[in-house]
Amino acid sequence: MISVIIIGAGNVASHFYKTFKTAETVSVTQWYNRRLNAIETYQNEVEITDDIKALKPADVYLIAVKDDAISHLSSQLPFEDRLVVHTSGSIGVHDLDKKLKRGVFYPLQTFTKDADVDFSTIPLCIETINKADYQTLKTLGEAIGCKTYKVNGDQRKALHLAAVFVNNFTNQLYRVAHEITESEGVEFEILKPLITETAKKVQDISPYMAQTGPAKRNDKKTIKKHLKLLENEHHKAIYKLLTASIQKTHGRQKL
């Protein structure tokens, strides 16, 4: 049995708590947050506290808070030489206080409040300083059904950067498309099968091979028509930038 104490109360912390509670070999012994009201709904299930000095002994302390709070919070922990991990994709393992055994337990997924999460579908990136601690975190990840990956700091940061492109930036393009359809009174719903098929395609072939559209074909007439239709200069700039990027990738002429 691996004992875990959760530190933080955001989406990631909440989803980890829920999945840990379903794991036969994991015990959540305590949950800390500086604002107790954020976790008080769970007080009948797990011991909660807002006193960082009251943290009990555990195998793993999981810090799931905003990136800019991780380092300071780890320095406030009232013990040393215990395994403390954070869940960030961009913060280094050495940003945790050096008095601790340090690691990273990074689930590469987007989390939404109150949405069901199947951790068996989530890649879990693990980084530690000590080999023994890696095995502990690997066992913990496997206990909740995750496929685990041993990564170093540079690899994890590259994955986080890539994740911004495939998740955050892509979602912003969905928003642009939504604005375009709304401007003509067309249902965004009509685009959803295309969104699904596009995501499905890269499960089987590379993004390079999956690319289609007027930019790849160097269809200048269609590109000009699209640019003429775009009244929003910001949207037009995005269209030009991505078109140029696709053309460069596929050896086509620039705009």
Short précis:
The protein is an alpha/beta fold and 255 residues long. Helices cover 44% and strands 16% of the residues.
Describe it:
The protein is an alpha/beta fold. Helices cover 44% and strands 16% of the residues. It contains 9 helices and 8 strands. The protein has an 8-stranded mixed sheet, with helices on both faces.
Radius of gyration: 23 Å
What is the percentage of strand-forming residues? 15-25%
Distance between the termini: 60 Å
Order of helices and strands: EHEEEHEEEHEHHHHHH
DSSP helix fraction: 40-55%
**Biggest β-sheet: strands ordered side by side in the sheet:** 3-2-1-4-5-6-7-8
Give a short account of the largest sheet. 8 strands, mixed
Structural class: alpha/beta
Number of helices: 9
Give the oligomeric state: single chain
Number of E strands: 8
**Uncertain stretches:** none
- Please tell me the overall pLDDT: 95
* Cα shape: elongated
